[in-house]
Amino acid sequence: MKVLIVEDDPLHRSYLHEAVNAALPECDTVIEAENGTVGEKLARDHKSAHIVMDLQMASRNGIEAARTIWKERPETRILFWSNYSDEAYVRGVSRIVPDGAAYGYVLKSASDERLKLALRSIFIESQCVIDREVRGLQQKSLGQTNGFTDSEYEILVDIALGLTDRAIAKRRSLSLRSVQNRLQQLYDKLDVYQTAGDDHEDGRFNLRARAVTIAFLRKLLNYSALERAEAELQEWLDGK
Amino acid sequence: MKVLIVEDDPLHRSYLHEAVNAALPECDTVIEAENGTVGEKLARDHKSAHIVMDLQMASRNGIEAARTIWKERPETRILFWSNYSDEAYVRGVSRIVPDGAAYGYVLKSASDERLKLALRSIFIESQCVIDREVRGLQQKSLGQTNGFTDSEYEILVDIALGLTDRAIAKRRSLSLRSVQNRLQQLYDKLDVYQTAGDDHEDGRFNLRARAVTIAFLRKLLNYSALERAEAELQEWLDGK
DNA sequence: CGCCGTCTTGCGTAAACCCGCAGCTTGTCG
DNA sequence: CGACAAGCTGCGGGTTTACGCAAGACGGCG
């Protein structure tokens, strides 16, 4: 059995290497990649079936890399090992995992035991392992309770990118008014009005900009999500 | 000599611990804190004069912690040890370092040698050590060439927070028109127009929102900067 | 001192945004 | 089938933005 480790940080990389050796005696080869780009290449070259992947890398982040890897070989087992459980990450991962694929999401703050257990569960038993904390987010985010619909999230991303209502309408094939409806919905859910100040007179917020800020502060958005969205946007723009 | 290490990640913490021991034989005690809050407390209790500090920690980030520590004891020597050289961080640090204080900014990607050298330079020689890469940013950001004035940065933050023109005017004691002037200046420098699409007809950007996005993508802003700005804003709001 | 560049402010306008109101289309359920 | 909720759309109008134009204010500099 071969395992591919994709991780920015040398310290974490060697820690992972050791953990893999300790948890998986049946593993005879461990390969390492220091960013997503190299990770993709190595995965392709070695036809890796077992990958441990960091999210948040400089050159090409874990979600991007995982997406192309899964596109080529959907049965690949990937364990995401991340510092954060931002909703943006969780949502990003959920969006790309193929049907029935075995994957995991473990936080770096987890204990050695948990990490090793996850390694065995995913790589040997083909079982999904999601950290409790992450799991919570996932439920909340997918269930509509207090969470955001895909369409709401979509429009959030669109205004975060800085599109006008009209542009959004064109992109999503909606009327102007519908876009604005969704925006209101979003403002509602994000409590933009509440923070907008009790006394309306003094200093109001720009709802659109404020919504993005709040989403950032709540980790609904983060740099990586923005980056991905921006790339998609450019793609769309190019495709006329 | 005592050294205080403030760092989230256990792996990095122990790495730092070793590095300090190796580089500073004259250091007899090393204390560790796993976040900014604890870091502040320990610094106070031990009257620490030598600190190695991570930026980007969950509970209270390095900039916040450093600010209060320097406020209490401005001659404290602090070495910032960070993963990133976002302009937002560099600017944040520059803003809080007291006159004549010795401090350093070294990236985690630097070699062992560089780290050890920096430790000795700062703690023994009281000399500032700024990584070349960070230095570059600093120059660019402070010199006006291609960089942003404080007033431009200020207004960038304000719209990122989601304030209206009117609110910004009130906060910064300016007229509405002046605020808008600065905004135009900002839009200019950020190249909002260029990205706004060559064909004006199709889909334009919302300049205000787009500016914030671009700033994020260029690391002029990041989560930590937003968080700090939001806290300041709340403070201002409370103070009527 | 007069000239000039930078910054501030006011006026006015076209566009974009926020949103209440109301008519339509769907899908679901009894 | 009728009722009802949820989403899309157009209309209308009040507010906010973006920005050209132009009149001061302030600070160097020859």
Topology of this structure?
The structure is a homodimer of 240-residue chains.
Chain A: E1 2-6, H1 10-23, E2 29-33, H2 36-46, E3 50-54, H3 62-72, E4 77-82, H4 87-96, E5 103-107, H5 112-123, E6 129-130, H6 132-142, H7 150-161, H8 165-172, H9 176-190, H10 192-195, H11 207-217, H12 223-238
Parallel strand pairs in A: 1-2, 1-3, 3-4, 4-5, 5-6
Helix pairs in contact in A: 1-5, 2-3, 3-4, 4-6, 7-9, 7-11, 7-12, 8-9, 9-11
Chain A binds a DNA duplex (30 and 30 nucleotides) through helix 9.
In short:
The structure is a homodimer of 240-residue chains. Chain A is an alpha/beta fold. Helix content of chain A is 56%, strand content 12%.
Summarize this structure as a short list of keywords or feature phrases.
alpha/beta, 12 helices, 2 domains, Sig_transdc_resp-reg_receiver (chains A, B), Rossmann fold, WH-like_DNA-bd_sf (chains A, B), 240 residues, six-stranded parallel β-sheet, DNA-binding
H/E element string of chain A? EHEHEHEHEHEHHHHHHH
Largest sheet of chain A: 6 strands, parallel
- Reported CATH architecture of the largest domain in chain A: 3-Layer(aba) Sandwich
- The CATH homologous superfamily of the largest domain in chain A: Response regulator
Largest sheet strand order of chain A: 2-1-3-4-5-6
What name does CATH use for the topology of the largest domain in chain A? Rossmann fold
Quaternary assembly? homodimer
Q: What share of residues of chain A is helical?
A: 55-70%
What overall form of chain A do the CA principal axes indicate?
A: elongated
Q: Residue-averaged pLDDT of chain A, rounded?
A: 91
* CATH top level assignment of the largest domain in chain A: Alpha Beta
What proportion strand of chain A? 5-15%
Please give the domain count of chain A.
2
Count of extended strands of chain A: 6
Organism (chains A, B): Rhizobium esperanzae
Keywords (chains A, B): DNA-binding, Phosphoprotein
Pfam families (chains A, B): Response_reg (PF00072)
Modified residues (4-aspartylphosphate) (chains A, B): 54
